[in-house]
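Title: Prediction job returns without error message
Component: structure pipeline
Severity: low
Priority: P3
Assignee: unassigned

Description:
Job completed but the reporter wants confirmation the result is attached to the right record. Sequence as submitted:
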Amino acid sequence: MNNSFKRPTRRGFLAAATTAIAAPSLLRATRAYAATPTLRIGHVSPRTGPLAGFAEADDYVIGAIEQAFAAGLENNGKNWNVEIISKDSQSNPNRAAEVAADLILGEEVDIIVAASTPDTVNPVSDQAEVNEVPCITTDCPWQPYFFGRNGVPGEGFMSTFHFFWGLEDVIGSFLDMWGQSGAAKTVGGLFPNDADGNAWGHSELGLPKPLAAAGYDLIDPGRYQPLSDDFSNYITAFKDAGCEIVTGNMIAPDFATFWSQAAQQGFNPKVVTIGKALLFPSVIESLGARGDGLSSEVWWSPNHPFSSSLTGASSKDLADGYTAASGRPWTQPIGFKHALFEVVADVIKRAADLEDPEAITQAIAATDLDTIVGNVNWATGPMNNVTKTPLVAGQWQKQDDAFDLKIVANSSAPEIPLTADLKLLG
């Protein structure tokens, strides 16, 4: 590659036009030609607000990654320092876009990463795409990521890449689990009016078609507004239809409101499988005895048979390390936050020219890496700029004084072992 001239980019024009930035080209040149140059990684996640559970382990994960990066990373025979700059999206899409723009234009990051639902991933990715900055994201089903950003199949995006599972995988895992239950095939759907809820409830791309194909009737009373305080109409509709299964995708406060009102109104389904809200032990613990037996998708656990390409730690090592350091139970996002930086490290080592965003983007696209959450390879994904990781289903079961997330259905990923049998609620 001829490095004597690099074409001007939209990012360069925007940076030059941003008066708050003092000589960004000088800053970049200073980093590039220092004895040990520095590569800056921007990171965005919801450390505060209703999605904060996704970022609970950020300090632990980033601290461990910074230790792994402490001696620098080698690229083309030269050692590079790696600096991570983390920003809080406050669980707000507008704030996520704002801090992403600041990382790109103010901090001049070379790569930006983000995680934790479309509310974080999509606005960060959009800022990276418009500014032509390499971007890697996770913790969001690929459909709300791709179609929520108006992605065009066969075209995709230039600078932004995503790894996670898709709605087809969560549906398959849920059906695998429900098939064991013996519950009636009438399912109540709880879908909020947000990016996740609209994707999960979408008539063509979401749950309705595959559930119908599997012989299930989905009772969908329509979208509710996030942070709703009254689910009476939904509960009535589910009771009238004889729903023995409830599913959906909710934030934790909404599920807590629904589940409390369901008890008050005498609605007692046999299986409750909710995405997002039931991922975290803190949520289950807050529900007391009514947390026992709730179920959800399982993206990652200490029982996953994968290890870190960066540190060599097993999934169990990573989970146990977090618990030892924090005194808190492991959470599913820990594995994916770690994997983000595994991919970053691999890309840094392989990129033809770390001063050229296009070369970094090409290195991302060429990734084929076994990580702590499974293989990441954008050549094998269902859509441009998307690749998938394995998914199973689990149930929270109480053991002594604590809840443990047991893997109870694994037909789509048999390499991930079962750890318990499914139990019906009540």
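Comment from assignee: result matches the submitted record. The radius of gyration is 22 Å.
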